[in-house]
Design a protein that fits this description.
- By secondary structure, this protein is mainly alpha-helical.
- Among the domains are: about 30 residues, no CATH class; about 170 residues, ABC transporter involved in vitamin B12 uptake, BtuC, CATH 1.10.3470.
- About 75% of the residues lie in helices and about 0% in strands.
- Helix 2 runs antiparallel to helix 4, helix 3 crosses helix 4 and helix 4 runs parallel beside helix 9.
- The radius of gyration is 21 Å and the shape is globular.
- This is ABC transporter permease.
- Keywords: Cell membrane, Membrane, Transmembrane, Transmembrane helix, Transport.
- Pfam families: FecCD (PF01032).
- It is a multi-pass membrane protein.
- Belongs to the binding-protein-dependent transport system permease family. FecCD subfamily.
Length: about 350
């Protein structure tokens, strides 16, 4: 077996991660500018459009009654969309880095569905009501689902390959969906609540929900951002990462825990939303490369922008009604991801 000198591996890694800082900063500034415009649109657009002067007046505590009511309703909704989008974007980027799987996503790997099953079971059995209870149960369900999928995907020759993980995730998602249906079907008292929540949306957002899930999101984000350097090493393969001094098992567990916490808390707050964690990291790699020290912050910004923009689009296309953001991300995300794969021919990370 040929041994690659550590110095050579380090040089190769540095070359692969290198991207002009000026370009990265310019794209980051452009992303923040786009995010600001989307936030303004999210507050202004709805069944009743609110002009900018009325928004400013409402935020200052004044303005017309109907305009002020619309703004006060849309501000927490916009914040929830930003927070959930950022969490799902970072979670997807970390999962793709941990598994070295370009198809890794909380939805495709069954993590969302595991969190959903845990919440639905909790609602049906012990009557969960608060966002904090949802978050704890969702994180536990997401963690169990992650372990199940990784164990199944590791069976047989070659270990946990990207294809086997994707297939294991699809099978697990199908099984968990059947369990959810079996729980909800005979329970008319919770049917409407669960069905509405399962679609995934940010309508009806409340500040108390945000404050209750915020600690879980903060811890998950810190764990994920703190794993950036380790994810860069893991991208070289476990053997080379260990040769570079990385504690591979600990690094993988820490990063995975951060991703599971982000995914579980986001699912608890807004329901299972697909494709954000899949599409966003690929878009960001096209802009800033594969260095996770840049990729994770970019994924947070772009994920927030994508989910908020999807929420605005859902209000526009079905006026005066709305499409839940989970439906919009599914419709928009699938063709975008296919286009990225076809153009870049993404095979591995």
């Amino acid at each position: 077996m040929t041994t690659v000198p550590v110095g050579t591996a380090s040089d190769a890694a540095a070359e692969r991660l290198r991207r002009p800082t000026r370009v990265r900063l310019l794209w980051f500034a452009a992303s923040l500018a786009a995010l600001a415009l989307i936030v303004a649109a999210s507050v202004a657009i709805g069944s009743r459009d609110v002009p900018l002067p009325a928004i400013v007046a409402a935020l200052g505590g004044g303005g017309d009654g109907l305009d002020a009511a619309a703004v006060q309703t849309r501000v927490p909704r916009t914040v929830l969309a930003l927070v959930v989008g950022a969490a799902l974007g970072v979670s997807g980027a970390v999962m793709q880095g941990v598994t070295r799987n370009p198809l890794a996503d909380p939805g495709i790997l069954g993590i969302n569905q595991g969190a959903s099953l845990a919440i639905v079971a909790g609602i049906a059995t012990v009557g969960l009501t608060s966002a904090t209870q949802y978050a704890w149960v969702a994180i536990a369900g997401a963690a169990v689902s992650a372990v199940v999928v990784y164990t199944i995907g590791s069976l047989g020759r070659g270990g946990a390959t990207p294809l086997k993980l994707a297939l294991a995730g699809a099978a697990t998602t199908a099984v968990f969906s059947s369990f959810i249906t079996a729980i909800v079907l005979p329970r008319n008292d919770i049917n409407s609540v669960v069905r509405s929540w399962e679609i995934g949306g940010v309508g009806g957002a409340r500040w108390d929900v945000l404050t209750q899930v915020a600690p879980f999101l903060v811890v998950g984000l810190l764990l994920s951002l703190g794993s950036a350097r380790a994810l860069n090493s893991l991208a070289l393969g476990d053997d080379l990462a260990a040769g570079l001094g990385e504690r591979v098992a600990l690094a993988r567990i820490t990063a995975a825990l951060g991703a599971v916490m982000l995914c579980g808390a986001a699912t608890a707050a807004a329901g299972p939303i697909a494709f954000v964690g899949l599409v966003v990291p690929h878009l960001c790699r096209l802009l800033v490369g594969v260095d996770h020290r840049w990729l994770l912050p970019y994924s947070a910004v772009v994920g927030a922008a994508l989910l908020a923009a999807s929420d605005v689009l859902g209000r526009i296309v079905a006026r005066p009604a709305e499409l839940d953001v989970g439906i919009v991300t599914a419709v928009v995300g699938a063709p975008v991801f296919i286009a990225i794969v076809r153009r870049r021919k993404v095979r591995e990370l």
